[in-house]
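Tokens in:
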């Protein structure tokens, strides 16, 4: 699945975003005032707040100290991962960045949350009164939110394709490339599911209890056969 051209893979969640600030009622807004502050926008356009920028800058310092200069950095192309990339790279000099290749990949975008993403709690209760109980009892791995993606579909589809196709993206580097991936919470859990061969119980537990903190880092080293060995998960440097 993973290219033998890689020695180090570092998964980084984006910094705190404007949407994160107002996600105080699960996936829905508590009220219309919260929704007004964020605005009706495509998910890919949600920016970082200043706290998110500071998280990215703090993470960048720790990442540079531990890993040095990466050969490749992938982000999802969403504004918040592009901004997080910018914040992290502030820790590096212009000379260091000359050797870095940055690639946007839509394959590592956030899970599509579906039709109800911009709804308030009251609107969900009024128009979809059965939803909360259904979603609470549903299988978190295989169930689709209305109009969205299941975790199973993104893991077995685009995330598997991203990992499988890395070989074609990378040039040969003696000793293997250092690859950073700036992505999203659910996408990172999905990649961990694939890299660590999680069973149903493990992915279920992660989806319920382990959303990676903003700008947290998960680190894998690879042996000569391309097998991933987890070094740590969800480490925060800021």
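Residues out:
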């Amino acid at each position: 699945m993973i290219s033998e051209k890689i020695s180090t893979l570092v998964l980084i969640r984006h910094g705190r975003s404007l949407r994160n600030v107002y996600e105080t009622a699960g996936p829905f807004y508590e009220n219309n005032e919260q929704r007004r502050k964020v605005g009706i926008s495509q998910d890919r356009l949600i920016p970082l707040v200043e706290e998110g920028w500071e998280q990215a800058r703090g993470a960048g310092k720790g990442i540079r100290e531990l890993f040095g200069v990466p050969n490749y950095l992938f982000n999802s192309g969403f504004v918040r991962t592009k901004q997080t990339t910018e914040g992290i790279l502030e820790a590096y000099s212009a000379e260091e960045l000359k050797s870095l290749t940055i690639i946007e990949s839509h394959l590592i975008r956030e899970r599509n949350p579906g039709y109800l993403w911009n709804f308030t709690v009251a609107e969900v209760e009024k128009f979809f009164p059965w939803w909360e109980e259904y979603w609470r009892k549903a299988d978190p791995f295989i169930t689709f939110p209305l109009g969205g993606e299941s975790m199973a579909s993104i893991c077995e589809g685009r995330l598997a394709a991203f990992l499988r196709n890395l070989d074609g993206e990378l040039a040969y580097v003696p000793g293997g490339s250092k690859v950073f991936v700036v992505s999203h919470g659910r996408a990172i859990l999905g990649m961990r599911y694939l890299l660590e061969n999680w069973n149903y119980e493990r992915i279920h537990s992660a989806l319920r209890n382990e959303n990676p903190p903003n700008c947290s880092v998960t680190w894998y080293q690879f042996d000569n056969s391309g097998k991933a060995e987890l070094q740590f998960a969800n480490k925060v440097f800021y």
